[in-house]
Design a protein that fits this description.
By secondary structure, the protein is of the alpha/beta class. The chain has one domain: Metallo-beta-lactamase, Chain A (4-Layer Sandwich). The protein is 36% helix and 22% strand. The protein contains ten helices and 14 strands. It has helices spanning 57-67, 86-89, 92-99, 107-118, 122-132, 139-148, 227-241, 259-283, 288-295, 302-321, and strands at residues 16-19, 22-28, 35-43, 46-50, 76-80, 102-106, 164-166, 171-174, 177-184, 191-196, 201-205, 247-250, 325-329, 335-339. Helix 7 (227-241) packs antiparallel against helix 8 (259-283). The chain is globular and about 65 Å long. Residues 35-252 form the Metallo-beta-lactamase domain. This is Glyoxylase-like metal-dependent hydrolase (Beta-lactamase superfamily II). Keywords: Hydrolase.
Length: 341
C-alpha cells in the first residue's frame, strides 16, 4: 500500500519542500497527462535542477516567475535530466544557456535526444511510415504519420552540444549530500534515477510512477527491441538497491512511500497484460493494431494511440523472446502474431 505525505500539489510558480534541501515544483504539459514534477536541490551557493519541462511559452513563463520569485537571486549550478523525453529535457538547452551551466545526463539519453532533435528530413518521416504500415495502420492513419513528421523536435529547445556524463552506480555530490545514479532501461535507453542514502530520497523520474505504468514501447528507431524485458529487469535491480523506506519523488503523480509494493504492482500488471495478449493471440492471429483495444479498453486520441501501439508491440516482443508467440507476414504485408502451443 502506498502512502502520500502531501495531499496538495505545488501551485504554479511555487515550491514545496519535500526533504532537507530538496523542493518540488510542477509544470503543465499539453497532453492527457497534464503535468510533470521537477525537483530543485540545494547545490552550494545555487541550486541544481532535476528535469526541465517541455519547451513551450507557458513553461518558460513559469520558470521566469520562479527566477523572480522563490528562486530570485539564486544561480542554477547544474541541470540534470533523467531522460531525453521532451517533458524532461525540453528546456535543458535554454536553462543551461541562461545560467552558463552544464547538462548532466547519461550518454544514451543525450545522444538519442540530440538525434531526434536534429533529424527533420523526409527520410525520417518515411521510416516512420515503413514502421507503422505492417503493424496494421490504415492508409488514413499513415497519412497522419506523414503529417506528424518529427513530433520531438518542436518540443525541445536546442540541446546543449556537450554534457557531463552520468553512469550507472556513479556517486556524486549535490550540495552537502552524496547521490547515487541508478540507470533503468525500458522506458528510455539509459534513464537516470538518483538516490540519496543520507536523505533516503529516490528521484525516480518515469521509471517508477505511483498510479500509472510508464510507457514501455517499441519505436521506429529500434524496431526489434525488447524494452519490456529491460524494464522488468531494471525494476528488480531498483528494488534491490533502494530500501522500501525511501521517499519516492516521481515525475508524475505525488511523492509517495511504498517503493517495493509499487514495483511489485508494476511487475504484476505487466505479467497480466502479457497473459491477456497471449490469450488473444491463441484465439487467432492478430495485427498489433488489432490488439490495441484488447490491452487498452478505452478511447484513445492520436497521440495516445502511438504510445498504446508501441506498448502492445513491447508485450509482443517479450512474448516472442520467451517463445510464447511468433509472427508471420500476411499477404497484405501486415505482421500477424499467433500463440505457439
Amino acid at each position: 500500500m502506498l502512502t502520500y505525505p502531501w495531499t496538495d500539489n505545488p501551485a504554479a510558480g511555487t515550491l514545496i519542500p519535500v526533504a532537507p534541501g530538496v523542493s518540488w515544483l510542477r509544470m503543465p504539459l499539453p497532453f492527457a497527462l497534464d503535468h510533470i514534477n521537477l525537483w530543485v536541490v540545494e547545490d552550494g551557493d545555487g541550486v541544481a535542477l532535476i528535469d526541465t519541462g517541455v519547451a513551450t511559452p507557458d513553461t518558460r513563463a513559469l520558470w521566469e516567475s520562479l527566477f523572480t520569485g522563490p528562486l530570485a537571486g539564486r544561480s542554477v549550478t547544474r541541470v540534470f535530466c533523467t531522460h531525453f523525453h521532451p517533458d524532461h529535457m525540453g528546456l535543458a538547452g535554454w536553462l543551461c544557456d541562461r545560467f552558463g551551466c552544464e547538462l548532466w545526463a547519461t550518454l544514451g539519453e543525450w545522444t538519442f535526444g540530440m538525434m531526434l532533435s536534429l533529424d527533420q528530413t523526409p527520410e525520417f518521416t518515411e521510416r516512420q511510415v515503413d514502421f507503422y504500415r505492417p503493424l496494421g495502420f490504415t492508409p488514413d492513419q499513415l497519412e497522419k504519420v506523414r503529417a506528424r513528421r518529427n513530433p520531438y523536435a518542436p518540443r525541445v529547445a536546442a540541446l546543449p552540444r556537450r554534457i557531463s556524463r552520468l553512469t550507472d552506480d556513479q556517486t556524486l555530490w549535490i550540495g552537502e549530500n552524496l547521490w547515487q545514479v541508478i540507470v533503468g532501461r525500458g522506458h528510455s535507453p539509459e534513464h537516470a534515477c538518483l538516490y540519496c542514502p543520507a536523505l533516503d530520497v529516490l528521484i525516480s523520474g518515469d521509471q517508477v510512477l505511483p498510479r500509472i505504468s510508464p510507457n514501455i514501447s517499441v519505436w521506429p528507431q529500434e524496431p526489434d527491441a525488447d524494452p519490456l524485458a529491460l524494464f522488468t529487469e531494471s525494476l528488480r535491480i531498483l528494488r534491490h538497491q533502494v530500501p522500501d523506506s525511501a521517499l519516492v519523488l516521481p515525475s508524475h503523480g505525488r511523492p509517495f512511500h511504498g517503493l517495493h509494493a509499487r514495483i511489485d504492482d508494476l511487475l504484476a500488471h505487466h505479467a497480466d497484460r502479457l497473459h491477456v495478449c497471449e490469450e488473444a493471440c491463441a484465439d487467432r492471429p492478430h495485427t498489433a493494431m488489432e490488439l490495441v483495444p484488447v490491452l487498452f479498453n478505452r478511447a484513445l486520441d492520436d497521440h495516445q494511440t502511438y504510445f498504446a501501439l508501441g506498448e502492445v508491440l513491447a508485450h509482443l516482443h517479450f512474448l516472442i523472446g520467451q517463445d510464447r508467440i511468433d509472427r508471420l507476414t500476411a499477404e497484405d504485408g501486415t505482421y500477424r502474431y499467433y500463440a505457439v502451443r
